[in-house]
Amino acid sequence: MEFGLGGGHDALVDDVRRFLGEHLTPELLARVRRGGTYHDWDFHRALVAKGWMAPGWPVELGGQGRPPLEVLAIAEELQRAGAPMLGLGTTMLVASVLRHLGTAAQKEAVVRPALAGEILIALGFSEPESGSDVAAAQTRAVRDGDEWVVNGQKMFTTNAHEADYAFLLARTDPTLPKHRGLTTFLVPLRQEGVEIRPITTLSGERTNITFYADARVPDALRIGEVNGGWEVMTVGLTYERTSAAGGDSIRLLEAMEDWAVGGTPHGRSADHDERVHEAFGRAATENEVSVLLSRRSAWLDSIGELPGVEGSMAKLFSSEAITRQSAQFIDLLGPEGIRTEEDRGAPARGEVEWAYRFAQGTTIYGGTSEIQRTIIAQRGLGLPRG
Ligand SMILES: Cc1cc2nc3c(=O)[nH]c(=O)nc-3n(C[C@H](O)[C@H](O)[C@H](O)COP(=O)(O)OP(=O)(O)OC[C@H]3O[C@@H](n4cnc5c(N)ncnc54)[C@H](O)[C@@H]3O)c2cc1C
Hints:
Strand content: 5-15%
Structural class: alpha+beta
Low-confidence stretches: none
Distance between the termini: 37 Å
Number of strands: 8
Radius of gyration: 22 Å
Helix content: 40-55%
Number of helices: 12
Shape: globular
CATH architecture of the largest domain: Up-down Bundle
Order of helices and strands: HHHHHHEEEEEEEEHHHHHH
CATH class of the largest domain: Mainly Alpha
Bound molecules: flavin-adenine dinucleotide
CATH topology of the largest domain: Butyryl-CoA Dehydrogenase, subunit A, domain 3
Mean pLDDT: 93
C-alpha cells in the first residue's frame, strides 16, 4: 500500500517549487491578500506557459496527459504555497463540463482561449434565496429568436470582475418541477445588461453580486439541452468537490512552527509548552488526514471512478480542520493571536489571525459542511433522505 505520491513525483514537485520560487513572489502574495482577488493574470499566464492550466487533459486537447496523481502533486504544491488559483479553478471546472457536454463551436470559441490563458469563466449558480438548494434558482432566461434574455441576480460570482463569461444557471420553464425547468448558459459578462458589484468577505476576499437586466446570450452558448440544466450542474458540482486539500492548514502550521522555534514576543519558551505540543500534534495529524483524503479522491479518479463521496469527505474534513486549528492557535497565542499580518512583529507573521477569518468561508463555498455531511450520509452510507 502506497500513501505517498511515489518517488517518481519528486522531480515534478521540485519543478513546481522552482516555478513558485520564480513566479510567486512575496510582493504578489501581499498584493493578492490586499486586493482580495485570488487571481493574477501574470501568474496565471506563467502557469499556462508551463502547461499547468490543464495538466491532466490529453495532449491533443491542450493538456499534458498527466495521470491524476501527478496533477494532484502539482495542485498540492500550488495550494501549500498559497498561489492565487481561484480564476483557474472556476475556469477549468467549466472547461471540464464543456469538454464532456459542449458543442464543437463552444470548444473552439471558449475552451481553446480558456486553456490558452486568454479568458476566465466565473460560476453563477448561487442567488440571494438559493445557495445550498441551488436548483431553486429564480434568475430567468426567456428565448428571443437565436438569443435568450436573462433577468435576475446571482450572489457570490467570484472573479466576475476578471471573467469574460459566467456559467449561469437560469430558470427557463417555471411551470416545470424545480429541477426540470433549468438551463445552463455561458453568459458574456462584458455587456450592457450586466452589472457587477463587489462584496468583501470576512477574510477580505473579493467576490461579487451580478445583476442581469435584459442581458443577452446567444443560443449557441447554451450548454446542454433546454431544461436539461440540472444534468449539466451534476457534472459541474462533481468537479467543484475534487481538488487538493489541506494546503492552507499546512502553511498555517508552518508559520506556527517558525513562531515556536523563534520564541514568543514575551520570551516564553514555546518548545516545551504542553499546550503547544498538543495543538501542533493535533494539527499535524489532521493535515495528514486532509492530504490523504484528497489523494484517495485522485487515486479513484486514476482508476476511472468518480470520487463524489470521497471528494465531499476531503472538502468537509479539511475546511473544518483549518477552522478548528486557527481557533486553537488563537487561544494558544492569547491576545497576540489577533495581531494582523500588517502588524510587524505579529506572531506567526499574522497568519493565524488571517487563517481564522479565511477558514470560515471554506466551510461554506463549494457546498457547506451540512450539505457535505448529507451527501456522505445519503450517497456514501445509503441513508434515506431526511
Ligand atoms: C467566499 C465565497 C465564494 C463563493 N463563490 C461562489 C461562486 O463563485 N459562485 C457561486 O455560484 N456561489 C459561490 N458561493 C456561494 C456558496 O456556494 C453558497 O454560499 C453556499 O452554497 C451556501 O449557500 P447560502 O449562502 O445561500 O446559504 P444557505 O443555503 O441559505 O444555507 C444557510 C445555512 O443553512 C444550512 N442548510 C441549508 N440547507 C440545508 C440542508 N438541506 N440541510 C442541512 N443544512 C442546510 C447551510 O449549511 C448553512 O449553514 C461563494 C460563497 C462564499 C462564501
